[in-house]
Amino acid sequence: MILVAYTRLANAMAKGRNWARIALTVLGAASVAFGLFRLIAWGSGIAAAVGVAMSAVDLVVTAVTTALDATAIVLMYRVSAHFKRRVTVDSDILRS
């Protein structure tokens, strides 16, 4: 269900809906914050002190998903090179 929600939000954002971009930013920022919290808790030893065992796979997955989420947030607000110049569509080609 989460994958369907993200897909629908991404499609709405691709159609130009600004509210979808904001919703994806909020969800992504929460994911980045929780990922950084997990990494900091492991690095400082708080996770071990509380009794939370984090394997190497957990740390790698957390670091990769945090980096991907942060990258996605940045890329959502960049202007694509494809849309930098206006292109007129020749209507004769469309009628063939």
Q: How would you characterize the overall build of this protein?
A:
Helix 1 crosses helix 2. The model has no long low-confidence stretch (mean pLDDT 86). The chain is mainly alpha-helical and 96 residues long. The protein contains 5 helices and no strands.
Number of helices: 5
Shape: elongated
Estimate what percentage of residues fall within beta strands. under 5%
- Report the structural category: mainly alpha
Helical coverage, percent range: over 70%
Intertermini distance: 41 Å
Main β-sheet, in a few words? none
Regions with little confidence, pLDDT below 50 for 5+ residues = none
Got a strand count?
A: 0
Cα Rg: 20 Å
Average pLDDT score: 86
Report the order of strands and helices: HHHHH
List keywords for this structure.
mainly alpha, 5 helices, about 100 residues
Quick overview of this protein structure:
The protein is mainly α and 96 residues long. Helices cover 73% and strands 0% of the residues.
Q: What is the secondary structure topology, with strand pairs?
A:
Elements: H1 2-14, H2 18-44, H3 46-50, H4 56-76, H5 91-94
